[in-house]
Amino acid sequence: MAGAIAYISRDTDGLHWKKIFETAFGPIDFRTVKEGLGNTDDIEIALAWKPAPGLLATFKNLKMIVSLGMGVDHLLIDEKLPAGVPITRIMDDGLIGQMSEYAIFFALRHHRDIEKYAASQRAGTWKPEKFVDTIDRRIGVMGLGTIGQDTAGKFVALGVPTAGWSRTQKTLPGVETFHGADGLARFLARTDILVNVLPLTRETRGILDAKLFAALPKGAYVINMGRGGHVVDDDLLAALESEQISGAALDVFNTEPLPAGHAYWAHPRVQVTPHVAGSTNPRTASPGVVENIKRVRSGQPLLNTVDAKSGY
Ligand code: NDP
Ligand code: OXD
């Protein structure tokens, strides 16, 4: 039998993955961190979500690390990550679609004043809000990777003026694109609803700060589905207080779970969701993982590899 596949996540039991691998490969040696990993010298492949720092370095015969999330910051923060072992990430069409749904839902909820109407309904008041033309509610997507491109494309399909910002130059149908530090101010100045879907790296940590909020038009709305580490929380709270930012939908937080008593919980213009904008779906994520296991075992180049240097 080939080397063991280890499932390293405390969030779920991994049984879906076990079944998928048995269908693809027949009987397998599948181990989980919850049930015990046994002799870790047997482990060839590690599927990981937030592994304990230093754990992967103890697997002496590891051939591939697979991030169970599309974000990989949870792996790269491990200073002892075994050098030379390739890191790949899931490429999950289902999750990508969920992320776009999340952004579209909160953008439209803001654009169509649904929260205000919910408050009016509670008060028994018939009160049409001021009409805002869709072409005057400009979307800006920060991060034009696999998720940002899908999200931006779906906003374009809705007829919303859509821009995107990335590190390197991009050309995308219907999307006004900006890139690099030089393009950021122009991107922000034309953005009424900001969707953050950047990866968390040395360069992007704390990017959603007072300076960035001030560069958006007054009353802009923020949707953060990237990582909590992108946001300077005190700056966002101050921008909400001054109404520079009119509201925010936040899925990810500097500390997760969001601590009890945190100002976001009770903020009337903040919607908190518990890191669920996109959930890994083994059905849609597994074909790429199965393919990569075949590839690593046959010495072929891997798909969806992560560049540890750039951090994504
Ligand atoms: P990708 O790696 O495919 O794309 C990243 C994008 O960010 C690229 O367009 C890249 O630019 C851009 N970027 C990176 N660094 C910078 C920088 N310094 N300045 C400007 N742009 C930059 O990522 P995905 O789209 O797959 O995922 C993005 C993130 O979404 C994940 O890392 C994760 O944090 C988050 N996520 C959150 C989930 C949730 O449930 N909330 C679920 C899944 C993911 P370029 O194209 O030029 O390289
Ligand atoms: C991911 C996530 O990175 O769930 O996939 O955040």
Write the layout of secondary structure elements.
Layout: E1 4-8, H1 15-25, E2 30-32, E3 43-48, E4 64-67, H2 73-76, E5 87-89, H3 93-111, H4 114-122, E6 139-142, H5 146-157, E7 162-166, E8 175-179, H6 180-189, E9 193-196, H7 210-215, E10 220-224, H8 233-241, E11 245-250, H9 263-266, E12 270-272, H10 282-298
Bound molecules: NADPH dihydro-nicotinamide-adenine-dinucleotide phosphate and oxalic acid (OXD).
Word description of this protein:
There is one protein chain. The chain has 312 residues and is of the alpha/beta class. It folds into two domains: 4-92 and 280-298, NAD(P)-binding Rossmann-like Domain (Rossmann fold); 93-272, NAD(P)-binding Rossmann-like Domain (Rossmann fold), CATH 3.40.50.720. Helices cover 32% and strands 17% of the residues. It contains ten helices and twelve strands. Strand 10 (220-224), helix 8 and strand 11 (245-250) form a beta-alpha-beta unit. The chain starts with a strand and ends in a 14-residue tail after the last helix. The mean pLDDT is 97. Residues 69-71, 95, 99, 143-148, 166-168, 197-201, 203-204, 225-227, 251-252, 275, 277-278, 312 line the site of NADPH dihydro-nicotinamide-adenine-dinucleotide phosphate.
Ligand roster: NADPH dihydro-nicotinamide-adenine-dinucleotide phosphate, oxalic acid
Over the alpha carbons, how many angstroms does the gyration radius reach?
21 Å
Number of domains: 2
- Which percent range fits the helix content? 25-40%
Strand arrangement in the largest pleated sheet: 8-7-6-9-10-11-12
Q: How many extended strands?
A: 12
Distance between the termini: 33 Å
> Which structural class best describes the helix and strand composition?
alpha/beta
What is the annotated CATH architecture of the largest domain? 3-Layer(aba) Sandwich
DSSP helix count?
10
Outline the low-pLDDT stretches.
none
On the 0 to 100 scale, the average pLDDT is 97
Q: Please name the CATH topology of the largest domain.
A: Rossmann fold
The fourth-level CATH homologous superfamily of the largest domain is NAD(P)-binding Rossmann-like Domain
CATH class of the largest domain: Alpha Beta
Strand portion, in percent?
15-25%
Reading the helices and strands in chain order gives: EHEEEHEHHEHEEHEHEHEHEH
How would you sum up the major sheet?
7 strands, parallel
Shape: elongated
